[in-house]
Amino acid sequence: xxxxxxxLEGLTISEAERALFRSVDPAGYIxxxxxxxxPEQVRALTAALTDMAGRRLPILIDQEGGRVARLRPPHWPExxxxxxxxxxxxxxxxxxxxxxxxNALALAAMLRDLGITVDCxxxxxxxxxxxxxxxxxxxxxxxxxxxxxxxxxxxxxLRQGGVCGVVKHIPGHGRAAADSHVELPIVTASxxxxxxxxxxxxxxxxxxxxxxxxxxxxxLDPHRCATLSPTVIDFIREDIGFSxxxxxxxxxxxxxxxxxSGGHAAGSNALMDxxxxxxxxxxAGCDIALHCSGDMAEMRAIAxxxxxxxxxxxxxxDAAMAWAGAGDSTPAAGWAxxxxxxxxxxxxxx
Length: 350
What we know:
The protein is α/β, with parallel strands linked by helices. It is built from 11 helices and 12 strands.
């Protein structure tokens, strides 16, 4: 097994993908809109991936609700954004916390019915009024304790539904003034000021999985973004205290093209190729390199560069999947009940 999560090109596994995946055995996969047509098609795809791997497989999706949702009507309902819960929290915190749990339970049961085992949720990025809108209404609020409380409820609901949660984007993306899909955000705030961003991750340090931020924090490491920085990854492990499975954000994002990301070859102006990017993220301390595009040439470069997953990372992966299996595993048919309760509270759409 190699320490990579790969995307796929289309609605089924192509013959080229099947040959590559069988030869290198990626640790898991991630699905996007291009991989989704109908419930029957998604179930067939996830079953094929699981059968090929022969194990309980991390199959990831970004199903946050609001503007970040790969599963959409008419086959699946719309779910609220993080801001919806933040707005309720201002009026009734306990109601908002329970609504967050129910929302995550509904998401998890829906995903589990499709064979999807990991949701890249909750965002623990503390919203900042000066921050880029790439976080914006996806965030659970402007206050760290509120974000942590709603994030914990989200993790609880996902676990109850038998799906693994991923806290992101560690150690915090809310303050960033740029979109890391497009360019490298460079955060110049002091270490003291950054404590506001770190706090939700500290409070949820026992989460099963986390995703790094392609953000350079000059107070921690002025030369490398979090994903590629041994200094920042050590801070995540030792200071924040996160001990679960740590994956990179997508290696294809343009943030890694900036010299201050650490994404250039040593002593050169040339960008690292995808194999080198994957190795750099692992050398920094990530357990898993995430590659989302499904581009075959890029996946082959990563597969050729990586060796087998390290024993510690494999243990963390097993623990994360066991964490998801330790919940109540609400039957998939029960997700509609949780949705009905959300609709009664005025959250979400029918």
